Amino acid sequence: MSAVGGGSPPPIIIVTGGVGTSAEQVVNTVLAQYRDVDVTVEIVSHVHRAAEVERAVAEASEVNATIVHTLVDAELRALVSRKAAELGVVAIDLVGPLIEQLSAVLDQEPLGLPGLYRDLHRSYFERIDAIDYALSHDDGINRKDWPEADVVVIGVSRAGKTPLSVFLSVLGYKAANLPIVPQIPIPPELYQLPRRRVVGLTIDLDRLLTIRRQRSRLMGMSPATDYTRPAKVADELELAQRVCIRGRFHVIDVTHQPIEVIADEVVRHIGDS
Length: 273
Fold this sequence. Notes:
The chain is α/β, with parallel strands linked by helices. The protein has eleven helices and eight strands. It folds into two domains: 4-119, Response regulator (Rossmann fold); 122-272, Rossmann fold, CATH 3.40.50.
């Protein structure tokens, strides 16, 4: 799919009274049917007033965008249709026809309140948000978002930071993690966090060497590297210990401990501190 004249195709603007997750999924599902497309999808969320509708339609008119809306408020839906017609904007109503049909079949008027589905399934969406957070904040990525984390897990390579972060996210906790690596400075943001929200992982040297040697074989790495050299690995563990002492961070010894036990201690710590 290509735009007229070879330029970028016009964007799609989602107008919603909630956060727009459902509409975005529908739009992306449809876009997947077209090869080699690069359509910008924008979301105008939490639309509850007429002025917000009018601004969204005006913006769509300026950039020749298509509006896709999921407004459950009948007056706002009607306003989108009216303003779009006035400005020559294509507006696609994803929920209006279904609401009208169900109102007739069920013989009752809809509540017309946005976000009810998300409110009814809040714990599910919180877990999904937490999983997305863990995956996008692995290995020190997106440190600017650390203040949003329930916990930042730190430790040397192969101490189990990523599996623990993902496990915690399934429980609904936003967990970021940061590897402690020699020659890479510790980001100052770490020490600016409330210390109860940083947890350090430590592990027995022999156990860590076993894990790293197995990893090296699987990755086809040379066995004669600092990654598996006992003295160097011991230095890494000492460095991680110094970081935790400086920050007065809680430390968990994960040697031979199942991830459920480790996660339980993390949860108790960030909840009790």
